[in-house]
Amino acid sequence: MSTETNQNNNPDEDFLVVENLTTTFNTARGPLPAVGGVSFRLGHNETLGVVGESGSGKTVLSRTIMGLQPRTNVEVGGSVRFDGHEIVGATEAELREIWGTKVAMIFQDPMTSLNPVTKIGKQIGESLHVRLGMSKDEAKARAIELLTLVGIPSPEERYEAYPTQLSGGMRQRVMIAIALACNPSLLLADEPTTGLDVTIQAQILNLLDELQMKLQMSVILVTHDLGVVATRTDRIIVMYAGRVVEMGRTKDVFKDHRMPYTRALLESTPRVSNPSHTRLKTIPGRPPNLLKLAEGCAFAPRCSRATEKCSQERPNLEPTGTDGHYFACWNPLDNQSAPVSSSTGSTKEFGEDNVRS
Ligand SMILES: Nc1ncnc2c1ncn2[C@@H]1O[C@H](COP(=O)(O)OP(=O)(O)O)[C@@H](O)[C@H]1O
Ligand SMILES: [Mg+2]
């Protein structure tokens, strides 16, 4: 946990403030706006879910927030501040300082981030040695402590193992250990359990929950799977075509969503208690081509409620009246039409009583 409030420009500010963030790739076929004007805030100790279909811009948003986007052929606009420190336009040295002490990220596939020919203990120790200047012995002791913290059995033995000798779940635990090595105030997890089997997924997600409480971190949990965020986040932002189309407290987004896309996502998500033979709805049509985004709402071509206005004018985020709950839609669903009362599914199946408020 960072206590460097002396460097904070504005101590009253939320821990993370993202304002009108844009990420545009310069491609051979023209500019591709992968993130189009995203704004949100995250407090200390809060957990935020970022959800959306594949291709909706979650990973590009995550990498841009972390300052990990390469600088060639990409233009980033807007602002990202951690504890008052600006990321957009920061120098390599400034970013390193922030990565070392304030924020860390874990990715979907640990194998692409772990070095297959280096023992895992050494990989954890390296970041302690390089970033925190620990001696070799100190780093080893701390690495074993971290392996224990993330629930790896026989940590002394595993310290000597190569990544390929561990299961997928264990490798993700190692990645979490590496991410936690520098006591970050924010852990950003991009699809941390996609590709793992269901039991292991639950174990990793529970571990993240536990660690958040123990270490008092903020967490951003990025996933295409709404079932993952239902019980594990305080707030959610829903992304479509690089923009936020709905945001609010988790409870409000699940029970009182207004954006038809949010409902479509909910209806296409396997429920925790859903029998596996229950047929899920798929969202009709395809995600839009970001190189040819139309003027209006990007979801309009797939939306059963779309009118002419939807394809002509883009709706901005409007407040629902419930604290912090916003949606971008010209023909929003009303409160009663939430799928709680529908015959096809119910937020109850997500563990309604457990959905965080
Ligand atoms: N380096 C890149 N160059 C050009 N387009 C990219 C690049 N990286 C991602 N994109 C595009 O940005 C959009 C958002 O991608 P991504 O953030 O990976 O989606 P998600 O994580 O939600 O599945 C996609 O259309 C993707 O093709
Ligand atoms: Mg992604």
From TrEMBL:
Coiled coil: none
GO cellular component: plasma membrane
PANTHER family the record matches: DIPEPTIDE TRANSPORT ATP-BINDING PROTEIN DPPD (PTHR43297:SF2), OLIGOPEPTIDE TRANSPORT ATP-BINDING PROTEIN APPD (PTHR43297)
Spans annotated as Disordered: 336-357
Annotated Polar residues bias: 336-347
CDD domains, per the entry: ABC_NikE_OppD_transporters (cd03257)
Chief place of localization: membrane
Key word Transmembrane present: no
Membrane topology: Peripheral membrane protein
Keyword Transport found: yes
GO MF, one annotated term: ATP binding
SUPFAM superfamilies linked: P-loop containing nucleoside triphosphate hydrolases
PROSITE patterns: ABC_TRANSPORTER_1, ABC_TRANSPORTER_2
Protein name: Unannotated protein
Subcellular location: Cell membrane
Pfam families assigned to the protein according to its UniProt record, in alphabetical order: ABC_tran, oligo_HPY
Segments forming domain ABC transporter: 16-266
UniProt entry keywords in alphabetical sequence: ATP-binding, Cell membrane, Membrane, Nucleotide-binding, Transport
Entry's Gene Ontology BP terms: peptide transport
Gene3D superfamilies: P-loop containing nucleotide triphosphate hydrolases
